[in-house]
Amino acid sequence: MAEAERIIGTPDIPEAAGTDPEQSDGGNGAEAAEAGADAQPRGKRRIAVLFGVAALAYALDLVSKMIVVAKLEHHEPIEIIGDWLKFEAIRNAGAAFGFGEAFTIIFTVIATIVIVVIARLARKLYSLPWAIALGLLLGGALGNLTDRIFRSPGVFEGAVVDFIAPKGFAVFNLADSAIVCGGILIVLLSFRGLDPDGTVHKD
């Protein structure tokens, strides 16, 4: 809980941008104001990266699923690397990699919450690696949420299209891959002590 409050509750302008002008003399206050003004366009660029990565991940997932439904569903699997990797169309009512098929609505709610939290973090974003990580999470969540809403058997209960089938592993899709890659990157950034606002801390 404390970790979440630290990340979400970080200031809109990184600490490195300068000290509070009200607590400084005229010279330092001017420098802080100039640094803060420079941080604003930098923050906007990071937000642009976030949504750019999200849009790319979402588009790739959407297009791949359209192709799979049109060309692969109800057909024999396509071997990519012998038995080790195949493309096989399945409908998954559960979470990523086919887990929890009895909780489709719950996973839909969770995906919606993730999107809302990322949108909230975006206004405090000054770190490029965090922008990429959150963009991957956002694009992946939107990709699977689109299936939940628009595919059968019904709204918020739709089954996700999966098609990447490694041998001995669950079948997944590009949205799942984006979510996992984004999650791994966030873990690595947290271990390095880098916050979304660009500050570095040592616990």
Automatic annotation (TrEMBL):
Top-tier EC class: hydrolase
Gene Ontology terms describing biological process: proteolysis
Q: How does it sit in the membrane?
A: Multi-pass membrane protein
Q: Does the keyword Transport apply?
A: no
Tell me the superkingdom of the source: Bacteria
As for subcellular location, the record says: Cell membrane
Compositional bias ranges of the Low complexity kind? 30-39
- Pfam family, any one: Peptidase_A8
InterPro entries noted in UniProt:
Peptidase_A8
TM stretches of this protein: 47-68, 95-118, 130-150, 170-191
Q: Under which pathway is this protein filed?
A: Protein modification; lipoprotein biosynthesis (signal peptide cleavage)
**Predominant place of localization:** membrane
Q: Which residues form a coiled coil?
A: none
Q: Where is this region: Disordered?
A: 1-39
- Main function: This protein specifically catalyzes the removal of signal peptides from prolipoproteins.
State the similarity comment: Belongs to the peptidase A8 family.
- Name the PANTHER family for this protein: LIPOPROTEIN SIGNAL PEPTIDASE
**Protein name, UniProt field:** Lipoprotein signal peptidase
Species lineage, top-down? Answer: Bacteria, Bacillati, Actinomycetota, Actinomycetes, Kitasatosporales
Gene behind this protein:
lspA
